[in-house]
């Protein structure tokens, strides 16, 4: 196999997709109304200072709007929000149609029944190829008790209750 076909986008997508993640919708209040996008690339980054990271595609039309707003909320999706993952991934659509939400301490949309939410302010942005690596400072956060996460694995939405079996507590 040549290096080129080894790194073909389809193959990269398939193999990167074996790394199971949760899913988030990152939201902000903007002068044009609420905005947000589905984001898999979220991760915790630092405890002191409290930082998180995620990577918007350079083609994202929503990220520049969130960046200009300066603050945004990471909504971690519960299993029952599978439909919202699709809804917030459709560019140009009215992503908030039928979506109930309340205001975070920084004034951003918290989706009803989010597994957890993390209110953030933009800290730094770095080059990430066809994506931008965002580092965000955590200002406020909260989580729901007894909710199951929505997982993403090999291009499919997966429920922990169906697929998960605790092997051992980590650490
Ligand atoms: C499961 C899933 C995960 C996604 N993860 C990301 C991501 O990490 N970064 C990103 O920029 N877009 C991601 N997207 C795509 C964006 O949600 C979508 O391209 C974006 O909402 C396009 O709309 P926009 O032009 O309004 O930004 C993901 C979509 C889905 C369905």
In short:
By secondary structure, the chain is α+β, with helices and mostly antiparallel strands. The chain contains five helices and twelve strands.
Helicity level: 10-25%
Total beta-strand segments: 12
Chain oligomer state = single chain
CA distance, first residue to last residue: 39 Å
The CATH C-level class name: Mainly Beta
Number of helices: 5
How are the strands of the largest sheet arranged?
Answer: 3-2-6-9-10-5-4
Full CATH superfamily name: Electron Transport, Fmn-binding Protein, Chain A
Order of helices and strands: HHEEEEEHEHEEEEEEH
Question: Any chance you could write out the topology, listing elements then pairs?
Answer:
Elements: H1 3-6, H2 9-16, E1 21-22, E2 24-30, E3 33-39, E4 43-46, E5 51-54, H3 63-69, E6 71-76, H4 82-87, E7 101-103, E8 109-111, E9 116-128, E10 131-143, E11 150-153, E12 156-159, H5 160-163
Antiparallel strand pairs: 1-11, 2-3, 2-6, 4-5, 5-10, 6-9, 7-8, 9-10, 11-12
Bound molecules: flavin mononucleotide (FMN).
Flavin mononucleotide is lined by residues 23, 37-41, 55-57, 60-62, 85, 88-89, 91, 152.
